[in-house]
Amino acid sequence: MVFHSIRVVVAAAKFNLIMTMRFFSGTAIALRLFAPIMTLGSAWVLFNLVYKGFLSPEFESAVGTSSYLSFITVGNAFYVFVFAAAFVVGRVMFWERATGTIEAAFMTPMNRLAYMAGIMIAASLNSLIDFIAIFLIGTLFGFQVTSFNSLLFFSSVLLTAVALFGVGLITNAITLTFRDRTNTANTLMILFMVFSGLVCPIELMPHWAQAISKALPLTYGLRIMRASLLGVEAFDPIYDVAALCILGIIYIGIGAFALKLIERNLKKKALLSVL
Q1: What pLDDT, in 10s, does the model give residues 4-21?
Q2: 202: part of which helix (H) or strand (E)?
Q3: Which of 5, 77, 183, 258 to pair with 236, CA 20 to 30 A apart?
Q4: How far apart are CA 106 and CA 102, in angstroms?
Q5: What is the dihedral of CA 64, 198, 230, 239, to 10 degrees?
Q6: What pTM was computed for the model?
């Protein structure tokens, strides 16, 4: 059983990487990078031209660094990783239905989670292009790595990918239920952008917003990544790593249960391929 699941993971990852390379284009990359570049450009204009390089003591105290543009760059790199990785997995069932293969896929004996794990691996590898590109572009806007902790950095990427897998499973369950991918993806991305600390320190948010952020695994992944690159002082990674692991497990558990429940219900009502 384990060997069969591994074969499913490898096959799904290989297939998706081949499809990505087959339809790879510079235009698609440019569109994926457009929003982060606009955010970086806007941040540069606001910081340098509007606020004349002034940074409030409250901001420095909240994030543990005095580099605003470095703070924004890491958040944007994290954003493209989340968008490229999580929502490829989150749209699996939508595209299976759109191409008319969902019933055939559900009739196979393959492990559903193994299949989606393979897609997640391929999506994560694909998103590394965007991830690295944002850091390189960020250097043009003032991004600087002040202290690189490789263990924390790679831990944040790996553990966040695990948590995103859970997010993707939940998104698939929502997609199967409401037969929509665009509104679901846009709503979740807005939720992540606002409450995960991508562009604004969580510590400066209202208490109700901070409560929401604590329930999102991306909050902790982003904080770990910033600490690994910007040398944030007085940062204790144990709490954030533990919270990220626990939330990742919870999200995967909820997603797997919801997906199985909805799949069984749709099969019973013969609604899998109904548009």
Answers
A1: 788 888 888 888 888 877
A2: none
A3: 77
A4: 6
A5: 70
A6: 0.84
